Amino acid sequence: SYREAAELSAAAMELGTVLPVHIKVDTGMSRMGFSLHDRDGAVRQIEDATRLPGIVAKGIYTHFASADFDGDEDGIYTRAQFAKMRELLDSLKSRTVRFEMRHCCNSAATVAYPEMHMDMVRVGIVLYGLAPSTHIKSRIMLRPALSLKSAAALVKTLEPGDTVSYGRTFEVTRPTVAAILPIGYADGYLREFGGKAQALINGKRAAVIGRVCMDQCVIDVTDIEGVRPGDVATLIGRQNRDEITVDDLAEIAGCINYQTVCLITDRIPRVYFEDGKKIGAEGPML
Fold first, then answer.
1. Please, what sign has the CA dihedral across residues 244, 245, 251, 255?
2. Considering the entire predicted model, what is its pTM?
């Protein structure tokens, strides 16, 4: 809004600096940005904001509400948003208000609407090798950049009649070899995954049994030979030719892949690789 621009201007002047800004326009997301319900008024306010001292309006942008959906109405809505943006830019240009960078496209629109790229795009989820929707997934080749791994802290044998974890939701019906993993919902591995998700260990799938705890979960490795403490368990990612994806876990949790990766907390150490070589790490115990 103009009020926020004026506040930034005053702060920049007080600090004796010049602040580069991008102006946001609400073309249909109904969140932040100059409203276009009164387009002429928005043009005047944006022009006035660009004239304020202490700020330089480097860019102007909007955000699409449904570019990741493939319905006819979604396409119509996205194109209508883009048309509103172009009309606004034409009006501003007629008043000699121009911007170095004009941008509209999130990950989905970057793939689905190349004609709307303008001066730059704002890719997010695709940087992780994840598609914003099934519709977009079919249109671009992506390779997941993220994996989530733990390791067996303890391997123990359970007997028939034993129950696993809080609420005793899983009862052992045969001699069972269980591996305890030191990861739980406080790390972003959700409670909903208990009894539904799987891990890859020694190249094979192991079911998560019982409820996921705050800091631990239990997997059934009875049919996987030779599992020992320290063996790596992949919760997201690939082992051998098998893979557990972010989308697999999102489906179990009833959410989207964005949410699944955002929930991974800073308790989880981050290890960075480039061309298969470790190039850095950060986080607890590193």
1. positive
2. 0.90
